[in-house]
Amino acid sequence: MTTVAAMSFWDGLTGQADAIETLRSAASTDPGNSAMTHSWLITGPPGSGRSNLAYAFAAALLARGDDDAQATIRQVGARSHPDLAVLSTERIIITIDEVRTLVAASQFSPSVGRYRVVVIEDADRMTERTSNLLLKALEEPPPRTVWILCAPSEADLIPTIRSRVRGVRLRVPSVADVAALLERRDGVDAETALVAAREAQSHIGMAHRLATNPEARDRRRRTLETALSIRSVSDAVLSAATLLAVAGDDAKAITEERDADERASALRSLGIEPGGTVPPALRSQLRALDDDQKRRATRSLRDGIDRIMVDLLSLYRDVLLLHLGVDDEPINQSMRARLDEATRASSPASTLAVMDAIAVARRRIESNVSPALALEAMLVAVSRHAVR
Fold first, then answer.
1. CA 48/CA 372 separation, integer angstroms
2. How many Å apart are CA 352 and CA 230, to the nearest integer?
3. pLDDT given at position 334
4. What CATH number belongs to 3-169?
5. Residues with Cβ < 8 Å from 185, sequence gap 6 or more?
6. By the 8 A CB rule, do 110 and 143 touch?
7. Please, which residues bridge with residue 145 across strands?
8. Is 316 a residue whose pLDDT tops 90?
9. Residue 16 DSSP SS3
10. What residues does each domain of the chain span?
11. For all residues of the chain together, what is the average pLDDT?
């Protein structure tokens, strides 16, 4: 019976047939279902759909039957189902207090569903001390509680947790699979969907943005055009400022609408009309929301800078393959004329040197080096290998 609820969620995923079948079987209401266990770990590269699959599985577990399917889908989508607990952080590290609260919630019996489901979207962000707290809950879970952890890889979690979960590994979906999903789910035309899926390198979330948001496409093109126009150190310094601005605009576009919706929802839950005065006793709750949104803005900016690096790597990857005569369609086929020009103006060795500089910049920013300084150093390396 639960299959109907699950199917509606599975339809929003692509390229993960084996993983879907594993979780669909586990969520089955068949008597004596041996595929079910109470602790799961979904792993896969960024954009593969880890959290989407986790919530699809959660809906399948929570739905009580066909009549309950659509209501469960809406509640899980809104993260408002009474038997669903979620930990999704905007911080770099998940705090021990956040996990302690989640562990306490996991002890309650389900109120309306078949299970109480607990999802941790970024389980790789737990310190060892926090992981050990979670370990105790995984070792002795209540009979009707199900834990679903998400992480890039199994190696991101401590061995004792890995030994107590059943792993489900996702792969990078193909460009064709992602394009088909955009057509089916978002109503995007075939050509736009294919270009977006290719330029996003099969990252589902980014492909959706590129396919449905002309401004996101323009920002990406501006990034690549900026790098291709560098001819000197002064160009590099100016271009670093341009790329930071592009990343900032991208981050703002991602967070602005979500922040407004969150604030409106918080005001409604506190019984405050739009534009109304917030009573002093309730202001601390809104300050906490503001603090969370500021942290998310910071993280979103860093993510935006990293997306720029990934796009630049795709650009120079295309140039390198053209140098080597590899018969693959470039990721940035829409800029083919500029790619051919860049190939004629460079060598395989210089292109590899630029790709190395981009990789170094990513590592530096990950280590909390100033993004502006890391971008400047990277683009100075680009200028050294540019043909004057």
1. 30
2. 17
3. 92
4. 3.40.50.300
5. 11, 12
6. no
7. 116
8. yes
9. coil
10. 3-169, 175-212, 233-384
11. 87
